[in-house]
Design goal:
Helix 1 packs parallel to helix 2 and helix 1 packs across helix 8. It contains eight helices and seven strands, in the order E-H-E-H-H-E-H-H-E-H-H-E-E-E-H. By secondary structure, it is of the alpha/beta class. A hairpin with a 5-residue loop joins strand 6 and strand 7. Strands 2-1-3-4-5 form a five-stranded parallel beta sheet, with helices on both faces. A two-stranded antiparallel sheet has the order 6-7.
């Protein structure tokens, strides 16, 4: 087995699309990338760390205040380790936090501490995605160099068929690999 060459920090937020993070993590691993998963507390309501730990073969981090196994400042050590940060799925909440400079959880703190490229794959109800505040927040993040992939039109948790569905796994992985070159 080849040694992973780059580390992808995969941030998972509280969206029904959190289950897709398993496919994304698996596809990244198959591309010989190291995957370090960071989950928000809301993400824990949708998928378990054990699943993602098994797929990523790394300990999943979800609590900024958990006692570390060795001394380190967890959010900065994760930020330094990342060659790229991928937030998939990304809710309107995390997009708003990042656009506003709010660092009140492990994922937002890691993003603000890293110098690595940041890729965001939104997933939310079409009304939330189209809301002027969400669109302003996306524009703000794009202006500072964050990359967005999707969302696409698809079946949403509310039953609507509209924009807001997380992008296809292959497209997300393709964008991550492109940015890592």
């Amino acid at each position: 087995m080849t040694q992973p060459s780059k580390t992808v920090l995969l941030g998972i937020t509280g969206s029904i699309a959190a289950y897709r993070a398993c496919d994304i993590a698996s596809a990244l691993k198959k591309s010989s990338l190291d995957v370090q998963v960071v989950m928000t507390k809301e993400a824990l309501e949708f998928i378990t760390p054990l699943t993602l730990q098994t797929i990523s073969q790394n300990k999943v981090v979800s609590d900024m205040f958990a006692l570390p196994e060795k001394w380190e400042v967890i959010h900065t050590s994760l930020a330094d380790r990342a060659d790229i940060v991928l937030i998939a799925p990304a809710t309107a909440n995390i997009i708003g936090k990042l656009a506003s400079g709010v660092c009140d959880d492990i994922l937002s703190s890691v993003v603000f501490a890293t110098t690595a490229p940041v890729v965001i794959a939104p997933a939310m109800n079409e009304k939330m995605y189209k809301h002027p505040v969400t669109q302003r927040n996306i524009d703000t993040l794009k202006k500072i160099g964050y990359h967005f992939i999707g969302p696409i039109k698809g079946r949403l948790a509310c039953g609507h068929e509209d924009i807001g569905h997380i992008a296809d796994t292959a497209e997300i992985v393709k964008e991550v690999k492109r940015l890592l070159k």
